[in-house]
Amino acid sequence: MKSIHSRLLLMLLGFIIVPYFLTIFIIYAYTKNSVEKYELNNSQMQLEKNAEDLQQYFDDMVNLPYILYRNPDLFRIFTEGFEDSIYFDQDSVEKSIETFYLTRNEIRQLRFYLNEGKESFTVYNATVSTRKSQPDLLNQEHIKQLFKSNKNYVIELPHVIKNYNNAAIIPESDRTKVLSIHHKIKEVPSDKFLGIMTMDISLGEYSKIVSNLAGENGSSAYLINDQNEIMYATDASLIGKRVPSDLQNRIEKGTTDKEISLTKTLDGPIEGWKLVKKTPSDVLFRDVRKTATINIIVGLGVGLLGLLMISFISYKISRPIRELSEKVRGIEGGHIEIPFENDRQDEIGHLERHIKDMTDRINLHINREYKLEIENRRNQFRALKSQVNPHFLFNALQSIGAVALRSKSPQVYGLITSLSKMMRYSMQANQWVTVQNEVDYMKAYLNLQQARFGKELHYELNFSDEVLENRIPSMILQPLVENFFKHVYEEGYYEAQLTVSGELKGDSLYLVVENSDGPEITQSELDRLRENIYRSPAEGTPVNEHIGLKNIYQRLILNYGKRADFLVDQPNGQGFSVTIVIPKDSRDEPRV
């Protein structure tokens, strides 16, 4: 049999802990999915923003050389050559060149190639170098690529800054990595080739844009040109190299379980280039997993506390029930005298009080049944002593009655008939009878006494028909009538009057046996008589006086309990009366 504690614990677990953890997991799954989508969207938006910034930056840098077309002095050195144009205003030209150099902070070096004289000069740190003839410059790889291209510019892979003219203005210690943009200078509108301007720019500016894409969460970012070469990467060792095959495979695979890959193909001056962001899944979702882990740990902690609270609550609820169950088992085992708590004001206390009342009633019932059994055995013993061959006695009485009739003695026959009725009624001891039966028995007895005392016997029986129909234990009035003859007539009080009456008052039946003009008793004698009658058999030494009255009282208590009353009194200071008060019309099983 499962205990209430275990069932209550399982119920609380089923209705509290399980739904709680189920809710935690549902929230975790929903939160993880939402945060993953958010991170992906956020990364995609960041990629789009950085792509726009890169396109704008390179658009600015590629279009920067067009400033030359708006400066007549600078443009003239391309159209007429440096030797001729210098006579216009050499200081103004150099100043214009220096101003152009200082236009952007990321410009590290400028090279001007003049096709008119096949010579070039450089600008480094806002200082113009001497001119140097370079007739083979157009045969260089990136210059050839520029001529083959339909575009006016070509972007060279990042490399360490070069001293194009071996000018003394560039120190050998400068190992800055730069990105070179080679731009064709043409005459407008004839498109005549005039020269080339090369800008070496530091990687710092556009590398910030790419690096910001990677952030600090372990991601990696790559800027790859249309030739599948790395223009920039968070891994500096890859800058200026072709994309490794393993990285190429990872980019082509895109997003996997272990890695989130985002690629944006760029437009504008860097059309065909790719901006790639690769983030390990555990890094991208680190925060959400950390949050989920914290939630699970907190959930486990709360669950553990919940288990402890549930165990404590179920124990506190089931403990009094278990103790009450153990007490009931003790009662089943025959241990009646079990202490019960009376200070509890809840349902358990209510049950304990009722069980205590029930055990008290059981104890009283057992005690009454035990006493009734003893009394019944005594009555059976008395009946055995008195019932000496009852058939013989009845037959003998009938024979005597027949002789009396043949002898023409009807009075003798009447007395024998009364005696026979009394004997027959006495055989019905230990049974319940109507008041009418008890009255008939008294009439038979009084008939015999009338033959003995003659006209000196004075008695009166007052019972209504309603009273006569009630059932009472047998032989509770007859002993009182016998006491009248024993203590009144046999002691010479022949003027005494015997009155036996019965009446109904509410739900109680009052039976009164009273004698008037009988012997007087003192108050002390009356008190001693009452004490003897009402004393429990277990209290003190039994007293043989007035045993009939005591027996009637005990039988009433055994049959009716506290609902019965037995009153002895001396009305008007003379005579003696006994009043029996019992519930009317009782239908209980006979216990007499």
TrEMBL record:
SUPFAM superfamilies: ATPase domain of HSP90 chaperone/DNA topoisomerase II/histidine kinase, HAMP domain-like. The keyword Kinase applies. Residues 315-367 form the HAMP domain. Keywords: ATP-binding, Cell membrane, Kinase, Membrane, Nucleotide-binding, Phosphoprotein, Transferase, Transmembrane, Transmembrane helix, Two-component regulatory system. The keyword ATP-binding applies. One of its GO terms (molecular function) is kinase activity. PROSITE patterns: HAMP. Coiled coil: none annotated. It is found in: Cell membrane. It holds the Pfam family His_kinase. It is a multi-pass membrane protein. This is Histidine kinase. It comes from Fictibacillus nanhaiensis.
